[in-house]
Amino acid sequence: MAGLKNILIAASLLASTVVAIPMMDKRAIYTHTETEIAWVTVEETTTVYVDESLPTPPPAPATTTIVPAAIFAQTSYVPSTFATQVASVSTTSSWVPEVPAAAPSVPASSAAPVTPEPSNVAPVPVQPKDTTGSTTGTCEGSGNTCVGDVTHWDGGLGACGWNVDTSSQMAIALPYGFMGTQSNGNPFCGRSVTLVNPASGTTVQATVGDKCMGCEGRSIDCTDALFNAITDGKGDGRLSGIQWYFS
């Protein structure tokens, strides 16, 4: 019953509405509105910046978007306003490590030349020759070396019969006991003699030119020139240990 009641109420309302609508004259002016739909194609381009260090991706296909535009032809044509899409440019920033600048090389300061200190090296001593020798031998050759003291005399006319210059000649006077009593024509006169200083290694050649009356053993007397030479200028009137032999 309730449903039927509702149906009757609705029917009565519709009937009153129909009665209220006035009848329109055929010559009455009315407005007719037409709506047109235009389809506009908008092309969009996407700009992509590619990092050269990365692999190049395949190009993106161009997209086409169709935007419907509503145009009303009621009184005037109003063009639709299109929003222009701005392509966003994406910038890829890559970090590059900063290389520190090389420090300028500082030239090495020139060091002052080092003056070498004098080394206190002791001179190598000259090994003295064998001082052994005979004080009674024949003194013939280096294998029969004699040894004794050396002194010096003033030279002049000697036992061999000629004048001896003590300041310039290298001459000796043999010991009286070795040379014998004979003077002029003595077989030892004029013979060549070799003198050796074993302390310094000095060797001097001389000649027999006189006889020494005060010399003992195998000691000999020398001219001043010979004495200074065999003693290296360090003799003090007499020097022991001088070797000599007939050469």
TrEMBL record:
It comes from the Eukaryota. The keyword Cytoplasm does not apply. Residues 104-138 are annotated as: Disordered. InterPro entries: Expansin_CellWall, RlpA-like_sf. CDD domains: DPBB_RlpA_EXP_N-like. SUPFAM superfamilies: Barwin-like endoglucanases. Residues 1-20 form the signal peptide. Keywords: Signal. Residues 104-119 have a biased composition (Low complexity). This is RlpA-like protein double-psi beta-barrel domain-containing protein. It comes from Exophiala bonariae.
